[in-house]
Design a protein that fits this description.
Length: 290
């Protein structure tokens, strides 16, 4: 019996393709994981047991530093959030909600604005650059090399709404790939799903995981943030936290709130604050139910 360490780079139909020093192994998982309500996922660091004339089996899953439920991905250093400057138009609330969820999990976020050859996305990108997020502007033939360089050596996920041009971008980052692309459905205002499962591709000491495009209703599955922790997930709020009159300030209508004073002074973008307020209301409503 031989035990070897590896990383799951793709999971399809109960088969876990695991990169090891001996190459990529197609593995099954021990039934014990089901008893623990634990399922191996792409990004997991695992121990594989190989026996003569037997299928390799995942025997252990190392402790995860973070985990996304949808798409199922473990141990991320960074998310590259892909946003179209047009077709479909960017949705600030969806962007802000995803960024907040990634912040809550300790995952760095960078934003990629696509289709700048059709409509420049500088205005919305500026909102996030001022908050300290790295933004990339891409067109049909631009931006891929900068993204490759920035993602090198990191475990990264490429995540975006359906139709934003994620598959086309992957083809430019990895020219050897032959991912199918889809035209935008103008009637629905979104694209067809072109990636159907998570697949991780090696990149200069790290990996980029391509993920299925999501619709707006899917974002609830990425994670939820308790309302008391939400303000810590908005970087623009950081200089003002702890400076409010009340220690339990929700930064909504309270007097002496340093955050709303910063908003009035133009130090916090209105769109970001509106997203915070909406997320706070949603979280408060959920906490009432549960």
């Amino acid at each position: 019996m031989n035990r070897t360490e590896g990383k799951i780079i793709r999971a399809v139909g109960g088969i876990y393709y695991t990169e090891t020093k001996d190459g990529v192994l197609a593995c099954r998982a021990r039934g014990i994981f089901r008893n623990r309500s634990l399922s191996p996922s792409a990004g997991d660091n695992v121990t594989v047991v190989c026996e003569d004339n037997a299928e390799p089996v995942i025997d252990e899953i190392a402790e995860r530093k973070n985990f996304l439920i949808r798409p199922p991905l473990a141990n991320l250093d960074m998310v590259l959030l892909v946003v179209s400057s047009c077709e479909p138009a960017p949705n600030a609330f969806v962007i802000d909600k995803l960024i907040a969820i990634f912040e809550s999990k300790g995952i760095e976020t960078a934003l990629i604005f696509t289709k700048n050859d059709k409509l420049a996305g500088d205005d919305i990108a500026g909102v996030y650059e001022r908050a300290g997020y790295r933004c990339f502007m891409t067109g049909l033939d631009t931006g891929a090399e900068d993204i490759r360089s920035y993602a090198a050596g990191k475990i990264t996920a490429l995540i975006g709404n359906s139709g934003v041009g994620k598959s086309s971008l992957m083809n430019r980052i990895f020219p050897e790939l032959n991912s199918e692309t889809a035209e935008i459905s103008r009637k629905l205002g979104r694209g067809r799903h072109t990636t159907r499962e998570v697949c991780m591709y090696p990149l200069e000491g790290g990996y980029i995981a391509d993920t299925p495009g999501f619709s707006t209703v899917d974002i609830e599955r990425y994670g939820r943030i308790p309302k008391a922790e939400l303000d810590g997930c908005f970087r623009e709020f950081q200089p003002f936290l702890g400076k409010c009159r009340f220690s339990d300030c929700a930064h909504l209508k309270e007097s002496g709130c340093a955050v709303t004073e910063a908003l009035a002074a133009g130090k916090i973008p209105l769109s970001r604050y509106e997203s915070y307020s909406r997320m706070y209301a949603e979280s408060a409503e959920l906490e009432k139910k549960y």
